[in-house]
Design brief:
With about 400 residues, this protein is an alpha+beta fold. Strands 7, 8, 9, 10, 11, 12, 13 and 14 form an eight-stranded mixed sheet that branches.
Amino acid sequence: MSVDDIRDMTDWLIDQGLDGTPIKQFLPALADRLNGHGASLKRINLGSDVLHPTIDTRSFHWTREGGVEMTMLDRGTFEENSPDWVQSPFRHMLVNRESSLRRKLGEGAPTGEFPLLDRFASEGGTEYAAFVMRYGDGATLAEMDGMISSWLTDAPGGFGNAQMALIESIQKPLALAFNRNVLHTTTRTLLGTYLGEDAAKRVLAGNIERGRAESIRAVIWFSDLSGFTRVADSIDRHLLLGLLNDYAGTVVDTLEAHGGNVLKFMGDGMLAIFPGEHLEDACGHALKAAKEAIDAATALSATRGADGLPTTDLYLALHEGELLYGNFGGRSRLDFTVLGPAVNEASRMAALSRSIDQRIIVSSAFASACGGKRDRLVSLGRYALRGVAQPQELFTLDPQAGGR
């Protein structure tokens, strides 16, 4: 293998990183290039830990027959004492602090050391190589220590010296390209998780200037849980966190399924919006989400109650109005959210819902914006809202409306 071959491969990998080529796209191209140099690769695996609220590791597997697949291991599911991990080549490398491992497979090669490699041998593999490329503390986010890679060939006799030299030489540029992809994905994921998908897209598109906001009309969702303070005072923090996560998870999943954007959690309260050019459609989506969220919360309470866990009820208000949507806050701490009198009015409506024993309350402005869907609503009468000058006519879903 010539120096020029190694330089060309290194330059190509660096270009993939600079161009932001997704791993799923450049991994098959990498296999083609290596096979063009006689590697006869049957399988490649790249993986790492990731900084993600629910995912522990992410791996990309390329096989000659199946192309690229991505697998993820959820947090809390890793079993350190499972036979697959205890007898894996990567655990052996990590425990023994080895940066590389190479094993011949097949006829004449020892067996029994790693069951995974015995399986590869039975499938025609002739040699396996693995590498651990560690990152410095300043190169990654939190828990991501480095990239692991493995390479399987079915070439007669295994990897040739030239092919092995090429694979070894590309580990550093490959790790750089891989790390760039993971950090990019992690950034988008974290922003989407903590800001909401729509707000995250706007921030990543350059909307980061303090005080920069646009005027939008949207449906406003404000929900909270019944008797939360009383419940919080009566149970330990682990049960409290479990209760909050269970109910919030149910509401968030329902909201997002119908196009809602969750902007903020305030204790047990949740602020979300349903934006859209056609407000009548946004109202329809919000009504469907509201009914499904109440039904899902009721079902959740039944399940938790059967398990002896504390339960609560969900109350929510739907309103419509003009909002400022953008960056607000101090010079070093901003929030991307909505502001406007309509937000405060929605909060007041949600607070009123418990005293009038209505799980869903909608405003007259929302009812007017519903268009043809208004016949699904029934008036509750006029009510004075704290901090609002004039009494407001409020509505709820007509129990006789069914799925109209």
